[in-house]
Write a structure and sequence with these properties.
825 residues, alpha+beta, D-amino Acid Aminotransferase, Chain A, domain 1, Dna Ligase, domain 1, eight-stranded antiparallel β-barrel, six-stranded mixed sheet, 15 helices, 19% helix, 30% strand, globular, DNA-binding, ATP-binding, DNA-directed DNA polymerase, LigD_pol_dom, multifunctional enzyme
Length: 825
């Protein structure tokens, strides 16, 4: 205890406990393995990692916050030890006091050195440990850096070890904006401690009331028919497909609303009890009412999804899982959320919304990865790894709830389901049968498809034999001739088995078959032969004429080049630009000639560009343009369009905006670094209010800060919030920001353009080309990548392949989607 008291002397010496609400540094009698992380908005925002060792909290200030990406090495500055009572501290340290600023309890849990290591490894300059917190999990490493000459502070590096909890760069701090203790935002904590009445028009923006929390109100959605994939003989080509791993497990639909979670099989059977450990993990996420499509898998000894391993786990029954056999749920589609069906949205948009919904998820719950285009490489990798194959989905297609060619599967090996219709006895001692007789339904008939005699474990054979005894029948349930039926014992055709085999013989029987397991999630009546079809061809959408016309003279890029760019990026652009009223920048003779805005059309764009009647200010109505797919984008390009600008609302709810945009427009004399810092600071102010935001390089000089919102408020409220936010920042930092369009007042400042958030105004859409020299494009960017960006026009229409690759990276998954309400102010 005396040693602990000595350790806290530095802590006590730095604080005046008559001024600060922090607890005094008293020695704790309790000993444990607690860890906490506190978000601390002091001189600069940082995250304090604290580990309980020797009765105190060993502490490091992590300047950028922890990252789940093993490639990120975070600077962690060693600070004074803190008392154990500090583990529950949350509040405001007065300005002028040591560490003055708002403190949030951002994470909490337990920690332990990995096997063979000790907490006292800190003295040697390293610590390899595991965390089991609400947000930080798995293995981590702290390593002390060699000090520079004259350097007094002790610098360490914090890094995530690559394991099942490793993830993207922005996942941890970018979306986790509330306290694990009080569920408050930084703004709430600050306002509550200081007793402030928020007045965004006269106070800094962070005093606004936070966005309302989205908690689980309602009941889980009902089961609905799942989308099924068609077997094809090759990977579909083109950029309009996304490709995922075909997991070797049980298809499952998860219906959730907070702690009420149901898990259904592909046929709608309620198997919640069978997957009780998974249900507990999903319930802990406190999801809003939603219906999620995915696959439940177990892993073999090599860490690969394995159907036989899944069967073994289920055989032991619920509650029998352990760390080595824990089931995992890979979510790959979001069918319904908050009572709203999402089935009309494209596959890629639903996937991005799923990423946003499950941003707090950690293993055993995960979102299945995907690639856009380049499915052949993924297929080759899966086959080389001995996996089952891949699933390919048209990026723009909706969720049909039936089998279609918009979802296709390409298998590395032949595997199908068969009905077990009988068994042949074995001459081997202790072996209950030699082989199983298999069949499939073809029309109204049950047709014999050969035998399987391998792939059984001893315990598995005994279990099957006991099951067969209950299904025995005297006569064959189907016609079988010759030796195959001579010694057979017949069964009621009710059991479904998963069988791997090399091929079908000329007579229709499986060759070199191996038993993988029973399929309790599939009905025998639904078992039919799978015959691979040819892979779907690309859609022939729109013919582009005058492809050689030069549109960007400086870059010597043509109309054909522009059309090819839009065709390539359509999967990632459509989910942001589709179903919104749009305005087009048309330059029929090229960007250096006459260009004009167009938002109305009498029908000259053709069948792929649609119209919606919208009330004008004078009470009349006009037809506005909107598109739904790649064909719509290309039809606009055919008519000379370069840029696409969209409303902040969708055609389904024109009067209820769902996207707020702050366009940071710098004065001519400012560097892009000033704009970059402004965007990062604005992100922080929005985060203080509990709002997740996203960054986009505009392709010009500036950055857009994009805030997705639930469409439950009016345009008046939308505009008023944006205006007050911008004005509050300009009042708080008048030397940096201005909230008026006046060029004279903008001298040396950044104009926070909030005017794009009023009814009828538009903002450039993500991935839109710009009518500027060298054909730049507007590009979403992760916050950490923005911090390193050198220009707002880094990418051009030549970069379509790179942009598609970037879009699938972890820091851009779920970009532009978040379920959050407009804050009150």
């Amino acid at each position: 205890m005396a040693r602990a008291a000595d350790l806290l002397a530095d802590y006590n010496a730095k604080r005046d406990f008559k001024q600060t609400p922090e607890p005094a540094g008293k020695v704790s009698k309790a000993a444990g393995n607690r860890f906490i992380v506190q978000k601390h908005d002091a001189t600069r925002l940082h995250f304090d990692l604290r580990l309980e060792i020797d009765g105190v909290l060993k502490s490091w200030a992590v300047t950028k916050g922890p990252s789940a990406n093993p490639e990120d090495k975070r600077l962690a500055v060693r600070t004074e030890d803190h008392p154990m009572s500090y583990a529950d501290f949350e509040g405001v340290i007065p300005k002028g006091a040591y560490g003055g600023g708002t403190v949030m309890l951002w994470d909490s849990g337990s920690w332990a050195p990995i096997a063979g290591k000790s907490a006292h490894d800190i003295e040697e300059g390293h610590l390899h440990f595991t965390l089991d917190g609400q947000r930080m999990k798995g293995e981590w490493l702290l390593v002390r850096m060699k000090p520079r000459p004259g350097e007094k502070r002790e610098n360490w590096l914090l890094r995530k070890i690559a394991d099942r909890w490793a993830g993207g760069t922005d996942d941890l701090v970018g979306r986790a904006l509330t306290s694990v203790l009080s569920d408050r935002t930084m703004a709430q904590i600050a306002a509550g401690e200081e007793g402030l009445k928020p007045d965004l028009g006269a106070k800094p923006a962070s005093t606004a009331k936070p966005a309302s929390k989205r908690r689980s109100k309602g009941t889980p959605p009902k089961f609905r028919a799942l989308q099924l994939a068609t077997l094809v003989d090759a990977v579909p080509a083109g950029h309009d497909w996304i490709h995922e791993i075909k997991y070797d497990g049980y298809r499952a639909a998860v219906a959730a609303a907070g702690s009420d979670v149901r898990i259904y099989t592909r046929n709608g059977l309620d198997w919640t009890d069978k997957f009780a450990p998974l249900v507990a993990h999903i319930a802990a996420l406190d999801l809003p009412p939603c219906l999620i499509d995915g696959e439940i898998v177990a892993f073999d000894a090599n860490g690969n999804p394995d159907f036989s391993a899944l069967q073994a786990v289920l055989k032991r029954g619920k509650g029998a899982q352990d760390a080595k056999t824990e089931l995992q749920f890979f979510a790959f589609d979001l069918i319904e959320q908050d009572g709203k069906s999402l089935t009309t949205l494209g596959n890629l948009e639903r996937k991005e919304r799923l990423e946003a919904l499950l941003h707090d998820a950690a293993p055993p719950i995960a979102v299945a990865d995907h690639v856009i285009g380049a499915g052949e490489r993924l297929y080759a990798a899966m086959c080389s790894a001995g996996q089952e194959g891949i699933i390919s989905k048209r990026a723009e297609s909706g969720y049909a709830g039936k089998r279609s060619t918009n979802w296709v599967k390409v298998k590395c090996t032949r595997r199908q389901e068969f009905v077990i219709v009988g068994w042949n006895p074995s001459r081997a001692k202790g072996r209950p049968f030699a082989s199983l007789l298999l069949a499939q339904h073809e029309g109204d008939a049950l047709v014999y498809k050969g035998n399987v005699g391998t792939g059984f474990s001893a315990d598995g054979m005994d279990d099957l034999a006991r099951t067969f005894a209950k299904l025995a029948r005297k006569t064959a349930p189907l016609p079988v001739e010759g030796a195959a039926a001579r010694h057979a014992h017949w069964l009621k055709p009710e059991l479904v088995a998963e069988i791997a085999f090399a091929e079908f013989t000329a007579g229709g029987a499986v060759r070199h078959a191996s038993f993988l397991g029973l399929r309790g999630d599939k009905a025998a009546r639904d078992v039919t032969p799978e015959v691979a079809r040819p892979a779907p061809a690309d859609h022939d959408v729109v013919t582009i004429t005058s492809r050689d016309r030069v549109i960007f003279p400086e870059a010597k890029k043509t109309k054909g080049d522009l059309a090819d760019y839009y065709a390539a990026v359509a999967p990632v652009m459509v989910m942001h630009a589709a179903r919104r009223p749009i305005s087009l920048v048309r330059c029929p003779q090229g960007r250096a000639k006459a260009c004009f805005f167009q938002k109305h059309d009498s029908g000259s764009f053709g069948e792929h560009v649609h119209h919606i009647s919208i009330r004008e200010k004078d009470g009349g109505h006009e037809d506005y343009l909107y598109v739904e797919d790649a064909a719509g984008l290309l039809a606009c390009v055919q008519m000379g369009t370069i840029e696409f600008h969209g409303w902040g609302s969708q055609i389904a709810a024109v009067e209820h905006p769902d996207r707020m945009v702050f366009d940071l427009d710098p004065d001519e004399g400012l560097d892009f670094a000033d704009v970059r810092k402004a965007a990062l600071d604005i992100r922080g102010h929005l985060a203080d209010m509990g709002l997740v935001s996203f960054a986009m390089l505009t392709g010009g000089k500036g950055v857009h800060v994009v805030v997705p919102l639930d469409p439950g408020h009016s345009w008046d409220a939308h505009k008023a919030f944006a205006r007050h936010f911008a004005e509050a920042l300009s009042m708080a930092e008048p030397d940096r920001f201005v909230a008026t369009m006046s060029k004279a007042k903008r001298k040396g400042r950044i104009f926070i353009d909030w005017l794009r958030n009023q009814r009828g105004s538009t903002a450039v859409m993500p991935y839109s080309a710009r009518a500027r020299p060298h054909a730049p494009v507007a590009v979403p960017i992760g916050w950490e990548a923005l911090a390193e960006a050198k220009s707002a026009s880094r990418y051009t229409i030549d970069d379509s392949s790179l942009l598609l690759e970037r879009a699938a990276r972890s820091d851009l998954q779920g970009w532009g989607f978040a379920a959050q309400a407009l804050p009150q102010y």
